[in-house]
Design goal:
The protein is mostly helical. The chain has a domain at about 45-170. It is about 65% helix and about 0% strand. It has helices at about 10-15, 45-50, 50-70, 70-100, 105, 110-135, 140-170, and strands at about 40, 40-45. Strands 1-2 form a two-stranded antiparallel ribbon. Helix 3 packs antiparallel against helix 7, helix 4 (about 70-100) packs antiparallel against helix 6 and helix 6 (about 110-135) packs antiparallel against helix 7 (about 140-170). The longest helix has about 30 residues, at about 70-100. The radius of gyration is 23 Å and the shape is elongated. Residues about 180-184 have low confidence and may be disordered. The structure holds protoporphyrin IX containing FE (HEM). The site of protoporphyrin IX containing FE (HEM) has 31 residues, from helix 2, helix 3, helix 4, helix 6 and helix 7.
């Protein structure tokens, strides 16, 4: 014999609740997340981002060494590290932008656009840091050059960390995009 009063109220609710549909997951191509800007399947963006990250760190390191030693060599090293970091950063930014524009499953995800905005702020800082030094690389270091370098290091760390989330949490750039990964 079954007794209706023994049924938990929340159990009854669950059974009657309509199935929730994620409107983003309904978009055509939502599960197509594999990189299209790649060499033999290896995404160019993932391969190139290591350079701007490392060079931005090197620039800050050279600024610190200039501050401690006063040797012009370190100010010149910072100029080159920051300049090449910015140029490589723009290159990897273009490859990332191409992924967003051409891969429907990447374009559909909000976190990809969040990453784009964070990365553009980082690139703007890196460019400003380089431009600031072009009219006198030694006098530019203290105080504003080293300040811009410290903020740039923070921003490339945030950008890189967030880019890693896109790949490892949301599977973007891989062939394993899943319909439960549409968060922000
Ligand atoms: C400016 C525009 C940018 C866009 C639109 C963009 C977009 C993306 C996308 C879609 C991914 C997922 C993987 C893929 O599809 O290749 C990704 C990954 C990543 N991004 Fe960006 N990105 C940009 C700039 C940058 C910059 C400037 C950096 C670092 C300085 C960066 C760091 C990363 C990292 C570390 C990953 C993870 C790579 C991996 O572990 O495989 N991104 N980005």
């Amino acid at each position: 014999m079954t007794d209706a009063t023994n049924e938990r109220p929340d159990q009854q609710d669950t059974d009657e609740r309509p199935e929730l549909i994620d409107p983003i997951a309904e978009l055509p191509g939502h599960d197509l997340t594999q990189s299209r800007v790649a060499i033999f399947g290896h995404p160019i963006h993932a391969m190139s981002v290591a350079f701007p990250v490392a060079l931005t760190f090197c620039g800050f390191g050279a600024d610190l060494l200039y501050w401690f030693t006063g040797e012009a060599f370190w100010a010149r090293a910072a100029l080159w590290a920051i300049g090449t970091g910015f140029i490589f950063g723009m290159f990897s930014g273009f490859s990332g932008t191409a992924e967003i524009l051409f891969v429907p499953g990447i374009r559909a995800r909000a976190p990809a656009w969040t990453h784009f905005i964070i990365a553009v702020v980082a690139l703007a800082l890196m460019g400003a840091n380089w431009g600031h030094r072009l009219s006198g690389y030694e006098s530019a270091v203290l105080p504003w050059g080293i300040t811009l370098s410290a903020i740039s290091v923070f921003m490339v760390m945030v950008t890189g960390w967030h880019g890693g989330k896109l790949v490892f949490d949301y599977n973007l750039g891989t062939a394993r995009g899943s319909s439960d990964s549409s968060g922000s």
